[in-house]
Amino acid sequence: QLVESGGGLVQPGGSLRLSCAASDSTFSNFAMGWFRQVPGEGREFVASISASGITIFYEDSVKGRFTISRDNDENTVSLQMNGLKPEDTAVYYCAQYESAYYADQHRYGRESVDTWGQGTQVTVSS
Questions:
Q1: b (16+ CB within 10 A) / e for 89-119
Q2: 78 has pLDDT over 90
Q3: Of 114, 124, 126, which Cα lies nearest the Cα of 2?
Q4: pLDDT band at 50 (very low <50, low <70, confident <90, very high)
Q5: Are 91 and 36 spatial neighbours (Cβ–Cβ below 8 Å)?
Q6: Taking the CB of residue 43, how many other CB atoms lie within 10 A of it?
């Protein structure tokens, strides 16, 4: 089970930190990721981190603004979001992948996700 927290309302240019806690003791064996979804659209990839924490990928629009990290001792994965824009408004989902690592960024899509969190709303508005 994955439980997200940290969403909310923030002004443009502001920051939020999302966290995801996993109850599964095998957390450190799997890559983790964050996706987001707006009404009427598909769930899109935001960021991923391999089981070791070494391999990280970002969607182009969030590079330089978002940072994904994980703590395998605490079974948590986080997404630090800085410089938020109105177009970042979405429901953000934590995801656990089926494998520890993929060399190709395109393998970190929805089709490789094994478990989803329930989602947390992020709204960027003045």
A1: bbbbbbbbbeeebbeeeebbbeebbeeebeb
A2: yes
A3: 114
A4: very high
A5: yes
A6: 19
